[in-house]
From TrEMBL:
<protein>
    <submittedName>
        <fullName>Uncharacterized protein</fullName>
    </submittedName>
</protein>
Amino acid sequence: MPFEYQVSDEIAIAIPNPKRDAEPLYKLVESSRKELGPWLPWANKMSSAKDELDFFGGSLSPCRRREVAKFGAAISKSTGGDDQL
């Protein structure tokens, strides 16, 4: 069930789409691993986009069962962000 809420012209909140989001998210984790690692130990365990895809598969299962909701934020490239996530 796709969901996206446009907060402003630059920001949207959406349920992650594993096939679309795994590769760009992995690239962001890879480029920021040194900063993320001390605070988010899972970042040190991600070694490929497939790891992200596997993570999405497991973490979104409760969403599919309507037990929890998980969202991601997308920031437009015009503000320095990446509109793919």
